[in-house]
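Postdoc handover notes: sequence design on the structure in folder B. Input tokens:
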């Protein structure tokens, strides 16, 4: 028995004992109606949490991602690639279309790309024409995204259909990593080699309905961004797409997410196309396909990336739509009495339970407040029950969930996210459960904003709960000191945990200003350019659609518009740009480049280098409660650093010869300016640098931050010369290592 399975059975046994104890012995039946309601609410929250954990484990324990078949090139079928757009800007669409056009395939004439525009916009039509793809407009669309895709399906006929949202940029290997799965019914792997099944081996009921790859994001989601945790916590959706949805392979209940998906047209035809009449058409369509007996596959590998919502109202609208759509679909009679297997129904029932997490979170926050502040008894227990039943169950439950969640998510971050969202998710989910439907489909905004990602007014519920929790902590401490109550210690621990989650929620709502125009990837890519009469090689450290940064061993002179060649493993781009900032980066020199306008071909090539890669944000969780708060407080109070230094300031601390033969000690040099130790007389304004003469004049002191700063008047003639470079290398080589590495 595996370690994970052993812990699961321990969790199940201790949880059943705990729930039984709670139901029969701890409900406050004799303490008034308020206590009874509060006690039942807490018990129900704990019961649902346990059920969700058990169902989650059952699904995850059957986690199996099938092997990708090796398919002969001539067998790859025709594919229709549908990019759904409503009102997105053409710059955003360009990136997605460009990624689709660069997808690898044995016969690229079999890949048919269409821009499906239910806004019928001239600029979208022009983009399609410029990029050489199909354009499928739709006017007067009353069925939202489902209507748009169904219109596209009626104009296409390939056996496989790929759906992308407007912002989802596929990697070049997207089709090669997904299409072969549709050959699983006709192929089998023996001794590590794939072969075609014989007629007798083919099961006519085994058909692949769709392959869902992760929805990944190349920008930090709002939780990563507002918590300054781009390098410390994964995207909030990673756990679902890389763990949960893949785990649903075992119950054939993989959720169709609407994008980054390859679907069988036969399956779509059999269910009547994309499901209409619901605000989550993708979720319902996936269930329809599975109900027809099709096998659906979830995969872990990131093959396309898009934009996560970057403001709180947009995030809320997205989550409310997802939650209400799930409730709409799962509560229908068609679902409960349909032909889905029982394990699939159980898995989808767990989805429904998840959306009640937010009500459970409120119950967990309010329960200790009711007890400590208002004296409402929500649990009747004693020291024996706490030590022998609650404590073992609590510890085993949390450790089991930690094993189950892997390195992508932990209980702490789940509670933080749930605490942030819970005040705004309860009423929409409750309304949908009662049949008060959200009928209008709202497209998630992809616009980038420079303002703070949230507004403090959204933190009002959290601040009220935090104040009540603080009062509870005060009364609990008083109770412990007066009565030596062990129960008070447990309640105090509970209150302190809730206070931490609420503090994090308030700090989240304070937001963070986004200064960047575009998202960057941390990537090392070879780069070359001309400096004087020689070619210089470097390596990028980050890259975005509007520029990049690269590192050099030597502080080269670069001025004005420079030409660069960037060579990735698959792609090469020639671009022009200007240096906007230079700094010392440990033992190297970092240059930041802002791109000049690109031609269409240059833009296509460069975009492939930027986006044809894995997102470089955190993929594993690396935080602690104390570390989170320290980072947050430090970054919140730190002023943003701005520097406009366009030339490398090179620390020299060495003597050079002046025109009159005397020695002048040069402190530093940046090709345009020289700083000396002492003021220079007129006879010392000509300095010898390796055979080249620097002609100096006193710098304008109104703009100079340091004394003894001199401008090099002939910098354009001498800066890129071999003699200057040789002299600098000699001077820098004579510096002690500690001084050479010093940032100036």
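Designed sequence:
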């Amino acid at each position: 028995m595996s370690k994970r399975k052993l812990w699961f059975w321990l969790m199940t046994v201790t949880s059943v004992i705990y729930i039984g104890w709670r139901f029969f012995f701890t409900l406050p039946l004799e303490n008034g109606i308020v206590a009874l309601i509060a006690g039942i609410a807490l018990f129900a929250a704990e019961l649902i949490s346990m059920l969700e954990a058990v169902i989650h484990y059952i699904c995850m324990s059957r986690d199996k991602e099938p092997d990708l078949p090796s398919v002969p090139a001539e067998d790859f079928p025709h594919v229709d690639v549908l990019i759904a757009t409503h009102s997105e800007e053409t710059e955003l669409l360009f990136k997605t279309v460009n990624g689709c056009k660069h997808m690898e395939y044995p016969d690229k004439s079999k890949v048919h790309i269409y821009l499906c525009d239910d806004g019928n916009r001239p600029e979208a039509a022009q983009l399609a024409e410029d990029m050489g793809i199909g354009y499928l407009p739709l006017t007067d669309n009353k069925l939202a995204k489902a209507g748009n895709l169904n219109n596209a399906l009626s104009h296409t006929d390939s056996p496989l259909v790929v759906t992308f949202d407007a912002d989802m940029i596929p990697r070049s290997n997207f089709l090669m990593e997904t299409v072969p799965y549709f050959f699983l019914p006709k192929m089998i792997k023996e001794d590590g080699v794939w072969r075609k099944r014989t007629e007798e081996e083919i099961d006519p009921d085994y058909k692949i309905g769709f392959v869902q790859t992760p929805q990944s994001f190349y920008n930090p989601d709002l939780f990563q961004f507002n918590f300054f945790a781009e390098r410390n916590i994964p995207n909030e959706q990673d756990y679902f797409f890389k763990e949960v949805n893949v785990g649903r392979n075992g119950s054939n209940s993989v959720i169709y997410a609407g994008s980054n998906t390859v679907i069988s047209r036969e399956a779509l035809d059999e269910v009547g196309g994309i499901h209409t009449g619901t605000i989550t058409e993708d979720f319902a369509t996936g269930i329809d396909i599975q109900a027809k007996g099709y096998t659906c596959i979830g995969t872990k590998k990131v093959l396309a990336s898009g934009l996560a919502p970057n403001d709180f109202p947009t995030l809320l609208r997205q989550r409310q739509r997802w939650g209400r759509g799930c409730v709409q679909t799962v509560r229908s009679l068609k679902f409960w009495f349909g032909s889905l297997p029982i394990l699939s129904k159980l898995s989808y029932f767990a989805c429904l339970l998840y959306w009640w997490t937010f009500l459970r979170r409120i119950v967990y926050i309010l329960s200790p407040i009711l007890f400590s502040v208002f004296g409402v008894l929500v649990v009747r227990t004693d020291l024996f029950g706490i030590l022998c039943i609650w404590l073992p169950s609590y510890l085993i439950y949390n450790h089991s969930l930690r094993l189950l969640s892997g390195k992508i998510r932990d209980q702490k971050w789940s509670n933080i996210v749930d605490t942030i969202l819970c005040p705004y998710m309860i009423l929409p989910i409750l309304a949908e459960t009662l049949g008060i439907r959200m009928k209008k489909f709202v497209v998630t905004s992809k616009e980038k904003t420079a303002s703070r990602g949230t507004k403090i007014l959204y933190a009002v519920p959290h601040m009220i709960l935090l104040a009540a929790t603080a009062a509870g902590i005060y009364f609990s401490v008083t109770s412990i000191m007066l009565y030596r109550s062990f129960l008070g210690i447990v309640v105090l621990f509970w209150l302190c945990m809730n206070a931490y989650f609420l503090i994090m929620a308030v700090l989240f709502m304070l937001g963070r200003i986004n200064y960047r125009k575009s998202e960057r990837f941390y990537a090392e890519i070879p780069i070359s350019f001309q400096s004087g009469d020689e070619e210089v090689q470097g390596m990028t450290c980050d890259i975005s659609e509007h520029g990049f940064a690269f590192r050099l061993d030597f502080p080269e002179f670069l001025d004005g518009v420079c030409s660069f060649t960037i060579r990735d493993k698959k792609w090469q781009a020639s671009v022009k740009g200007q240096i906007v900032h230079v700094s010392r980066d440990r033992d190297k020199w970092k240059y930041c480049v802002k791109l000049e306008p690109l031609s269409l071909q240059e833009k296509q090539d460069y975009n492939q280098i930027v986006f044809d890669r894995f997102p470089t944000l955190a993929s594993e969780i690396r935080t602690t409660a104390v570390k989170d708060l320290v980072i947050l407080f430090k970054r919140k109070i730190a002023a943003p650093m701005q520097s406009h230094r366009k030339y490398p300031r090179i620390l020299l601390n060495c003597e050079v010869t002046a025109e009159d033969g005397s020695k002048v000690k040069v402190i530093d040099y940046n090709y345009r300016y020289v700083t000396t130790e002492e003021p220079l007389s007129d006879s010392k304004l000509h300095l010898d640098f390796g055979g080249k003469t620097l002609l100096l004049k006193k710098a304008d002191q109104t703009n100079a931050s340091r004394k003894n700063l001199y401008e090099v008047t002939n910098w354009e003639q001498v800066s890129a010369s071999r003699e200057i470079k040789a002299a600098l290398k000699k001077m820098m080589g004579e510096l002690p290592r500690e001084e050479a590495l010093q940032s100036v």
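Context for whoever picks this up: The longest strand covers residues 572-585. Don't rerun without checking with the PI first.
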